[in-house]
Amino acid sequence: xxxxxxxxxxAKTANTNLTLTGSGTGKVVLGDGSLVLPDADGTxxxxxxxxxxxxxxxxxxxxxxxxxxxxxxxxxxxxxxxTNVDNPVDILSVSITPTSASxxxxxxxxxxxxxxxxxxxxMGVKLVRGSTEIGSGDSATWNAGVGEIHSSDVLSGxxxxxKPTSVHALFLDSPATTSATTYKLQAFANRFGSSLENxxxxxxxxxxxxxxxxxxxxxxxxxxxxxxx
Length: 229
Prior knowledge:
Strand content: 35-45%
CATH class of the largest domain: Mainly Beta
Order of helices and strands: EEEEEEEEEEEEEEEE
Helix content: under 10%
CATH architecture of the largest domain: Sandwich
Mean pLDDT: 89
Largest sheet: 6 strands, antiparallel
Radius of gyration: 30 Å
């Protein structure tokens, strides 16, 4: 292999490119032989990257942010009998098929409602992936006999049950799959006296049947987003 030692190389003809070409399968090497350039162009929008061992190649910028969004919505008044922290009801469900097993699913939910039980202590929501509860608290870190929920709103007085109120959900899940996956937003009204009782849950409304603007019908929603790590 021969070498050329000069301080500068300039194209002979004005306004022409300077071309460096390896022979056969040889490539152009720069920087005391430490950087090997690719011998073919990449595609539009690609950038030049290194493998950390001196070889340069063209690569595409990885997709970042939100890949896809799915959602469900309810604006209808409804009632659900016999609910409590151990017996929530399905309010909304959304199916999403992740494009990559390494991506995550961001879950955003809201339940609006209340209970017809004047002694209801709190209203809560849970999140479920398939048949698995996710994003709930760990009762083992406090007292094993307490309930496990995602979030709740306290209903502490007789007047609290009459008006609609909202409970929100926010959780980043790692399903590690590219199969269709169903997420559910569950809700319940909870009352414990000497034992766990059943309470009627009102969806998108208050617990008292007003017929005036003292109350209103609201909405509940569930949005799931596939996002890159």
